[in-house]
Design goal:
mainly beta; 2 domains; 9-stranded mixed β-sheet; two-stranded antiparallel ribbon; 2 helices; 13 strands; 7% helix; globular
Length: 217
């Protein structure tokens, strides 16, 4: 009789309770369902504002090798499909732009993992460059670099957020390139560009409040 009563109580209470936000939950890109205040990152629900899930729960015994590893030491998820915004300075002679992406992540070369709303959200503090140069006379008409680079190729770069520390504001182009619609200028202070080499690893980012977009392998 006692077992039957306990089973009934389970059915009426605990078996139908919402997932606790204090627990660690698995998720996926196809089913990014997490408790309120968490985001699905690398198949784990991560508390908003943290780099990795807190797996230090007394009832969860897992080795450190099983823990998801963040793609950067200073960054945050951008969107829900695995892309990260990773802060830091970069230059071709010290830490290259690609060196800000760790644990198998690489510089994003498009915005396919990030929606425009996520990319342009005011919650994204700083500008995070994709490995995607722009060409044109200004950001409002910036477009993808052609196979034969046109006017101003490499004088602007696509990314997400709003640049910090530059004399030029981030602009929105009429011609998004591979989903990304935000671009910022090289200003010889915050972003010092080598227009002869159209790769982000050849450029210099001098403000650590900005950074790069890192995408999963």
């Amino acid at each position: 009789m006692r077992l039957a009563v306990l089973s009934l109580l389970c059915l009426l209470t605990a078996c139908f309770t919402e997932p606790s936000a204090d627990r660690v939950w698995r998720c996926s890109v196809d089913q990014p369902l997490c408790p309120e205040g968490q985001t699905c990152v690398n198949d784990w629900c991560v508390k908003d504002g943290t780099a990795t899930p807190d797996l230090a729960m007394p009832d969860l015994a897992m080795s450190s090798d099983m823990l998801p590893k963040a793609p950067c030491t200073d960054g945050f998820p951008i969107g829900t499909k695995g892309a990260w915004a990773c802060r830091g300075k970069f230059s071709p002679t010290a830490t290259k732009a690609s060196g800000l992406c760790q644990n198998g992540f690489k510089l994003c070369t498009d915005g396919f993992l990030i929606s425009d709303a996520e990319c342009s959200s005011s919650s994204v503090k700083g500008f995070f460059f994709a490995d995607l140069p722009a060409q044109g006379v200004n950001t409002s008409v910036a477009k993808c670099v052609d196979s034969i680079p046109g006017v101003g190729a490499g004088s602007m770069w696509y990314g997400c957020g709003a640049v910090i520390g530059s004399s030029f504001a981030t602009g929105r182009t009429q011609f998004p390139c591979k989903i990304l619609a935000l671009a910022t200028y090289c200003d010889n202070q915050t972003l010092i560009c080598n227009m002869a080499v159209l790769g982000l690893d050849a450029q210099r980012g001098e403000n650590a409040a900005n950074g790069v977009l890192c995408c999963p392998p």
